């Protein structure tokens, strides 16, 4: 994902072999995150490396939070009352693009990446009105819609 002011942000998922102190057995550990690449006078470098542990044994669909379509339906439909019509999901490899037309007249699309264990992780949100270009947004339904101030 390109961020013109702060560089390019990359998504990664990694498998590592990990051990327990005092144990002779090892296990495979999974995590995912983001790495930013920025350009400086001397050239490019990686910065802002984030890493989140992945619960590999928690199969998807145990919770609605693991499925991109359910996340959009619950957070932006049920909580925010924003979805007028959700369109069919576009899947390309490990990427999921979920589009909907909002009750506010804007169009939205969300990008999710599917982890090795099948869990969908929300990567980015975009919004546009009419013929405008897509603009990246950062909506936080937990804060904006589940408060006394926001819609219920």
Summarize the structure.
This protein has 152 residues and is mainly β.
Sheet with the most strands?
Answer: 6 strands, antiparallel
* Apparent shape: globular
Distance between the termini: 32 Å
Order of helices and strands: EEEEHEEEEEEH
Count the E strands.
Answer: 10
Q: Which stretches are low in confidence, meaning pLDDT under 50 for 5 or more residues running?
A: none
Number of domains: 2
Rounded Rg: 18 Å
- Summed up, the helix count is 2
Helical proportion, percent range = 10-25%
- Helix and strand composition category: mainly beta
Mean pLDDT across the residues is 85
Strand content: over 45%
Describe it for me?
The structure is a single chain. The chain contains two helices and ten strands, in the order E-E-E-E-H-E-E-E-E-E-E-H. It has helices at residues 68-79, 141-144, and strands spanning 2-3, 7-19, 26-40, 43-54, 83-86, 90-92, 95-102, 107-114, 120-128, 135-137. The radius of gyration is 18 Å and the shape is globular. The protein folds into two domains: 2-54, no CATH class; 64-144. By secondary structure, the chain is mainly beta. 11% of the residues lie in helices and 51% in strands. The model has no long low-confidence stretch (mean pLDDT 85). The strands form two sheets. Strands 5, 6, 7, 8, 9 and 10 form a six-stranded antiparallel sheet that branches. The protein starts with a strand and ends in an 8-residue tail after the last helix.
């Amino acid at each position: 994902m390109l961020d013109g002011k702060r560089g390019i942000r990359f998504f990664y998922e990694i498998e590592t072999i990990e051990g327990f102190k005092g144990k002779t057995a090892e296990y495979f550990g999974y995590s995912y995150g983001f790495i930013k690449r920025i350009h400086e006078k001397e050239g490019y470098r990686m910065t802002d490396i984030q890493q989140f542990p992945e619960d590999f044994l928690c199969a998807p669909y145990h919770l609605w939070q693991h499925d991109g379509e359910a996340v959009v339906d619950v957070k932006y439909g049920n909580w925010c009352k924003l979805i007028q019509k959700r369109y069919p999901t576009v899947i390309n490899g490990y990427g999921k693009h979920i589009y909907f037309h909002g009750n506010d007249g804007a169009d939205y699309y969300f990008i999710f990446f599917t982890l090795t264990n099948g869990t969908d992780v929300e990567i980015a949100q975009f919004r546009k009105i009419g013929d405008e270009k897509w603009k990246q947004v950062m909506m936080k339904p937990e804060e904006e819609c589940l408060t006394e101030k926001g819609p219920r």
